[in-house]
């Protein structure tokens, strides 16, 4: 059981001992720290407002109640979206003219996890400095709650998924007529969370025929909720059985997006951003950004359209900062996260679906053929489980020294760029693991490189122990 406190929020497993897990006491403490930070940031403002939404995981209602009552206890008003998506909360914050937002979701983590993901008044994830201040406040536990006449009020608004869809459909590059005319048939795997609400609604409004798979938002995930090939056999089989045009897979909070081609094969979550960027750049040339664990294919597509590509450290907030600095027209992360600034600076599967459908309606080719037209890179995404005794910094330093003659970046962990492939090693912000990502011109080469690096790390650990 684990509790991870980071600048992006607090994430942990439900139950157990306070301080070691995400217990009610921890939820209250960190909600109080966030509310106290908001009051610091808005001194002199009479009344603060925060938007709260959650995915469908089993612990969501409990954590939501604790967080909402803590904020109202601080004298802060709350707009409760209840079942929602991460990008929906991000869209709702500025529409509500709110001072911040909290999304209660552990994203792709299994059902025993939950988290408080924290937003600023723009509906964007907090800066490192703001996140660090909230951690300080949580540690100090120096909170001042409101007197009885000054308690905050709660307003329920369950319309925001539809309002979010409205905002997506208003985007000039979403070709509503072309999509409707194409008469697409799509299978949707909502992993029994809020994607099962949002994605079918969006598709129906675009005139797309929908076959639903695991779209009942019970929070009982029918498979590992991370949208990787090994977890998606059911939808792959159903796409072929139903002779659908393709399949759509989202994670529990709907900020990650993956596609299944009509032949049941993975389109590749790395290529979600590549395809959406190809469409956007063809209409609005410009720059792109992804993180340094993402495929080189985005760089290739950007250069083809005459733009400039930049890589940031891993993490949505880092991608967004670099997108703003470079005026990127689209960006995101290779885990299927699409960030389209025309709507908002946050990963958004709904925007990704609408842009992808617009591209397919224009190309008039099968999804497998679309994928075959992009640069062919293959990734391996592996991990090493951590124990408290493992010194991650020492491991990364040793790997940096071992490969000092190669092209190395230490912006985020250690990335080693070889002429024909690369490896990126970094400690996860959300799980007690070292991520080992590699990319090469074939899957076997990527897997072989990853296994080689893992053996070298295990050797370093055994020597040190």
Automatic annotation (TrEMBL):
Q: Give the CC-aspect GO terms.
A: cytosol
Alpha-D-phosphohexomutase alpha/beta/alpha domain ranges (all copies): 8-143, 173-264, 271-374
| Molecular-function annotations in GO | magnesium ion binding; phosphoglucosamine mutase activity; phosphomannomutase activity
Residue ranges of domain Alpha-D-phosphohexomutase C-terminal in the record: 397-455
EC id: 5.4.2.10
The reply to whether ATP-binding figures as a keyword in the UniProt entry is no
- SUPFAM superfamilies attached to this UniProt entry: Phosphoglucomutase, C-terminal domain, Phosphoglucomutase, first 3 domains
Give any single GO term for biological process. Answer: UDP-N-acetylglucosamine biosynthetic process
Please provide the record's keywords in A-Z order. Isomerase, Magnesium, Metal-binding, Phosphoprotein
Q: Does the keyword Metal-binding apply?
A: yes
Q: Which cofactor does it need?
A: Mg(2+)
Pfam families cross-referenced by the UniProt entry: PGM_PMM_I, PGM_PMM_II, PGM_PMM_III, PGM_PMM_IV
Q: What class of enzyme is it?
A: isomerase
Q: Which domain of life is it from?
A: Bacteria
Please give the family membership noted in the entry.
Belongs to the phosphohexose mutase family.
- Protein name, as recorded: Phosphoglucosamine mutase
Species this chain originates from: Sinomicrobium weinanense
| Encoding gene, per UniProt annotation | glmM
């Amino acid at each position: 059981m684990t509790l991870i406190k980071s600048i992006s929020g607090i994430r942990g497993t439900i139950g157990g001992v306070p301080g070691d897990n995400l217990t009610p006491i921890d939820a209250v403490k960190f909600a109080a720290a966030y509310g106290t930070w908001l009051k610091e940031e808005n001194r002199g403002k009479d009344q603060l407002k925060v938007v709260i939404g959650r995915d469908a995981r089993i612990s969501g209602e409990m954590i939501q109640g604790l967080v909402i009552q803590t904020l109202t206890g601080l004298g802060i008003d709350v707009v409760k979206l209840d079942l929602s998506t991460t990008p929906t909360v991000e869209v709702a914050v500025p529409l509500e003219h709110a001072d911040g937002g909290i999304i209660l979701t552990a994203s792709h983590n299994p059902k025993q996890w939950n988290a408080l993901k924290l937003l600023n008044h723009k509906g964007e994830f907090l800066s490192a400095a703001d996140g660090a201040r909230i951690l300080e406040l949580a540690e100090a536990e120096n909170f001042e709650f409101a007197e009885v006449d000054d308690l905050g009020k709660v307003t329920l608004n369950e319309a925001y998924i539809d309002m979010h869809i409205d905002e997506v459909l208003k985007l000039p590059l979403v070709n509503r007529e072309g999509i409707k005319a194409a008469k697409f048939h799509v299978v949707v795997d909502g992993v029994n969370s809020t994607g099962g609400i949002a994605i079918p609604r969006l598709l129906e409004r675009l005139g797309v025929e929908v076959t639903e798979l695991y779209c009942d938002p019970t929070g009982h995930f029918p498979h590992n909720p991370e949208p990787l090939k090994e977890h998606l056999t059911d939808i792959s089989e159903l796409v072929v059985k139903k002779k659908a045009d393709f399949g759509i897979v989202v994670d529990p909070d709907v900020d990650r997006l993956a596609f299944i081609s009509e032949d049941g094969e993975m389109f590749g979550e790395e290529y979600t951003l590549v395809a959406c960027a190809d469409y956007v750049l063809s209409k609005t040339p410009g720059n792109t950004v992804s993180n340094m664990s993402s495929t080189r294919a985005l760089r290739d597509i950007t250069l083809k359209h005459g733009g400039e590509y930049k890589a940031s450290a891993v993490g949505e907030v880092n991608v967004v900062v670099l997108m703003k600095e470079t005026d990127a027209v689209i960006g995101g992360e290779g885990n299927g996260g699409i960030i389209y600034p025309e709507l908002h600076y946050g990963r958004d599967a709904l925007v990704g679906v609408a842009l992808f459908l617009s591209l397919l309606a224009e190309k008039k080719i099968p999804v497998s053929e679309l994928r075959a037209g992009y640069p062919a890179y293959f990734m391996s995404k592996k991990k090493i489980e951590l124990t408290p005794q493992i010194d991650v910094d020492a491991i990364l330093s040793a790997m940096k020294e071992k490969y000092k003659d190669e092209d190395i970046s230490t912006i985020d962990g250690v990335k080693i760029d070889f002429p024909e492939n690369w490896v990126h090693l970094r400690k996860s912000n959300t799980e007690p693991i070292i991520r080992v990502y590699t990319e090469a011109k074939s899957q076997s080469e990527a897997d072989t490189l990853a296994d080689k690096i893992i053996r070298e790390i295990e050797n370093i650990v055994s020597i040190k122990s």
